[in-house]
C-alpha cells in the first residue's frame, strides 16, 4: 500500500460488468496522492464511526450479495457469508429511527442511490466491520482550481519521541521521529502505532503485524514528561 495513485477522473473504473480491463499506461494519467503507509482500524462499528468522523473515509470489504438487488433505502437485511467486494465507507447517520452507514460503491451512478448504498449500523451487516483500513496520505499531488497544493494538503502528523534514562526527561535522552496513525511492524510478529489526540498521545502495541483488533495502549500527555518503565518519555505531536 505504497506509491502514487491516480485521480479517478483520469483513470476511471471500467469493470462494471465484472471483466478486468487491461492496465492503462498513459502520459494523460494525473497523480492524485502519494501513499506512504496504511492503518488497520479496529473491527468495531463504534470505533469505525469515530475514526471516520475524525479522519475521513474507510476502505472496507463486504459480502455484496445483497447489493445485486438493492435500489434504495436502508438495507437492514444483508448477506454475511463471505467477503467478496471492496467499497468505501464515507459517512453515517444516527439521528433517525434506523442508524445507518453510507457506502460508496464502484458500480456507477445508475446503481443504488446514485452509486451509494445505505446499510444499517450496529449489526455487522454485509460483514462490513471485518477488515476496515485506510491509507496514510502525507500530501495532495493535485492542486484544486485557484488553490495552491500546500493549502489543499492534508496535515502530516508526526510524533517526536524522546526516551530518557532518568525520571525527568533530562539525562540519557534519545530522540526519534514517528509518523502518527501509521502501523509499524516490529520483531516477533507484532506491531505498534502512535496516535495523537487532544492533549494526549497514545502508544499502542498489537500482537499481530497489522495493528488489527484490540491493542494495549499507553497514554502520555502531549509535550510533557511522563514515567516510562525505568526512565521517562516525552511524546510531542507535530502538525506540518
Compose a concise summary of this entry.
This protein is mainly beta and 240 residues long. It has two helices and 17 strands. The longest helix has 11 residues, at 45-55.
Description:
The protein has 240 residues and is mainly beta. The protein has two domains: 4-13 and 28-136, Alpha-Beta Complex (Cathepsin B, Chain A), CATH 3.90.70; 157-239, no CATH class. Helices cover 6% and strands 38% of the residues. The protein has two helices and 17 strands. It has helices at 45-55, 149-152, and strands at residues 3-6, 31-35, 37-40, 58-62, 74-75, 85-93, 100-104, 116-120, 133-136, 157-164, 174-179, 184-185, 191-197, 200-206, 216-221, 225-228, 231-239. The strands form five sheets. The chain has a five-stranded mixed sheet, with helices on one face. A four-stranded antiparallel sheet has the order 11-10-17-16, with no helix packed on it. It starts with a strand and ends with a strand. Keywords: Disulfide bond. GO terms for molecular function: cysteine-type endopeptidase activity. Residues 131-154 are annotated as: Disordered.
Question: What labels describe this entry?
Answer:
240 residues; Cathepsin B, Chain A; four-stranded antiparallel beta sheet; 2 helices; 17 strands; Cysteine_peptidase_B_(CPB)
CATH topology of the largest domain: Cathepsin B, Chain A
What is the CATH class designation of the largest domain? Alpha Beta
**Count of alpha/pi helices:** 2
Which outline best applies?
A: globular
Secondary-structure element string: EEEHEEEEEEHEEEEEEEE
Amino acid at each position: 500500500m505504497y506509491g502514487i495513485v491516480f485521480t479517478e477522473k483520469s483513470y476511471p473504473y471500467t469493470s462494471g460488468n465484472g471483466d478486468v480491463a487491461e492496465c492503462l499506461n498513459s502520459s494523460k494519467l494525473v497523480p492524485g496522492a502519494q501513499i506512504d503507509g496504511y492503518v488497520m482500524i479496529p473491527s468495531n462499528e463504534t470505533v469505525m464511526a469515530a475514526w471516520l468522523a475524525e479522519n475521513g473515509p474507510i476502505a472496507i470489504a463486504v459480502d455484496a450479495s445483497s447489493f445485486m438487488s438493492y435500489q434504495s433505502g436502508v438495507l437492514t437485511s444483508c448477506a454475511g457469508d463471505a467477503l467478496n467486494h471492496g467499497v468505501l465507507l464515507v459517512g453515517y447517520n444516527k439521528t433517525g429511527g434506523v442508524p445507518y452507514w453510507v457506502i460508496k460503491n464502484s458500480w456507477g451512478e445508475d446503481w443504488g442511490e446514485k452509486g451509494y448504498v445505505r446499510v444499517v449500523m450496529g449489526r455487522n451487516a454485509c460483514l462490513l466491520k471485518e477488515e476496515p483500513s485506510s491509507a496514510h496520505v502525507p500530501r495532495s499531488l493535485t492542486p484544486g482550481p485557484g488553490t495552491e497544493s500546500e493549502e489543499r494538503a492534508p496535515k502530516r502528523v508526526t510524533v517526536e519521541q524522546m526516551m530518557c534514562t532518568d525520571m525527568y526527561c533530562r539525562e540519557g535522552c534519545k530522540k526519534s521521529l514517528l509518523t502518527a496513525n501509521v502501523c509499524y511492524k516490529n520483531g516477533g510478529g507484532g506491531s505498534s502505532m502512535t496516535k495523537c489526540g487532544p492533549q494526549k498521545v497514545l502508544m499502542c502495541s498489537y500482537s499481530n503485524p497489522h495493528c488489527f483488533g484490540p491493542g494495549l495502549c499507553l497514554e502520555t500527555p502531549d509535550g510533557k514528561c511522563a514515567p516510562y518503565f525505568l526512565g521517562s518519555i516525552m511524546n510531542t505531536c507535530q502538525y506540518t
